[in-house]
Write a structure and sequence with these properties.
32 strands, lignin degradation, six-stranded mixed sheet, Immunoglobulin-like, copper, EC 1.10.3.2, glycoprotein, 8% helix, 4 helices, mainly beta
Amino acid sequence: MMMGRFQFLLACALALLSSSITSAETVEHFFHVQNLTVQRLCHEQVITTVNGTLPGPVISVREGDDLVIHVVNQSPYNITIHWHGVFQLLSAWADGPSYITQCPIYPGQTYAYRFKITGQEGTLWWHAHVSWLRATVYGALIIKPRFGNFYPFPSPYEEFPILLGEYWDANVVDVENQGLATGAAPNISDAFTINGQPGDLYSCSQTGTYKLEVIQGKTYMLRIINAALNNQLFFKIANHKMKVVAIDAAYTAPYVTDVIVLSPGQTTDVLFTADQPVGSYYMAARPYITAQGIPFDNTTTSGIIVYQGAKSSATPIMPALPAFNDTPTAYKFYSNLTGSPLGPHWVPVPSHVEEHMFITFGINLAPCGEGSATCAGPFGQRLSASMNNESFQLPSKLSMLQAFFYNNKNGVYTTDFPDNPPSVFDYTNSSNAFNQSMLFAPKSTKVRTLKFGSTVEIVLQNTALIATESHPIHFHGFNIHVLAQGLGNYDSVKDPRKFNLVNPQIRNTIAVPTGGWAVIRFTANNPGVWMVHCHLDVHLPWGLGMAFEVENGPYSTLPPPPNDLPKC
């Protein structure tokens, strides 16, 4: 009897072990980066794409899978691919930002990104991390539960990725270079897109408008990604409610709303039920703009949700989108989301904090340059940006991760990024916007060193220098707990009382409120060099970024670089 019970338990254990081993797979893709001529907005335009599609291919994996992506650069530009939101535990060489974790893949070269998806489920995405190529080089990365595991909510009838993009009727590399040459902001986009199409509200765009067919009474999941370069976006479906169930591949407490807002880099998974009369309904997105007095692309992209059996001649119903400057609606959405402690892969808030930082950021000026004509920025200078008054500058001869691994940091980066701004002032007072004594920030390549396993708490504080706006701050290599956020200047006495230490939202990209602040916390459990930067591509080349250097741990050491790592 005892022997039989032992054999039964042994069989169960072996079956469980076999299941855990066989449930993980190796998923392999080839990315051919190449130019493509497309027809948009009444014109032909040459763009850079992956495998000849816009957006690029959807990568679908399960938690625990290994990914191998062979990137073949057949374009005329240098390229890297960033796997936005993937932890890259002990695989920092695959993170992707150029000159941070690797040198670029030059035209004609190939590089294989290899990494494991661990402890994450939901919607992430991938995109180019060189210049403005991200405008057209991007796609969805969908992580489903392991076989045998399930969503923490009823499974939808069907799932659809919805990628919100931004389109220029021009060569985006030229657009960026022109802005950098003049010292002014680059030209604004010509359209927004849903799954690569502007939608029928734009000229010459009726053909190809994205359409999604649904069955009345069924519930669907939309995996929404803001892949736009420079704009936060409001998103609505006419006459339908949405239930938010995850953000940035982290489950949330269910939150019902008729409008969502996403900053560049963020993802939101929503459930919606086709519970309206049979017909056609627009889904639409338009920008949420926080800086006053600057030009912006004030257009609306649309797709169409078509109920099965709807008349083809029926005019779709249009949702009433918020005004472009509706900060109360955006703030309500961002601040009302909470995490799901009972959901899969929940990580409790670390209680003991070893490192405290206060990081201010915003727009700055840089000298126009010796012998240059007057630049097109304020006071005839060049637009710049900074964190704690340090304007981040990428190295060019060696990646920062290589310098870290080989202990060859001299001339690549220094480890003296400040924990606080150089001076305390009324950060969000717009009367300081053009105070020239505060506008110039030196160029530098500085990191903050963190001991492995240390917990870091950061106050992220927007400033009103040059312009008051919301900045989406993206953390490579880590998820962050968003403990609190608010408008105005952070109050170190009163605002800690607002900290949510029980079920805060977990993200990899936080839209710090316009003229406001956010407090985040994370544990440095991943050795390497990890970038933290504004995910508005107009601001990154100006210097709105920094990096953390996380030391090796006693049982967690960064492995050597792969043999095919591109050389500078």
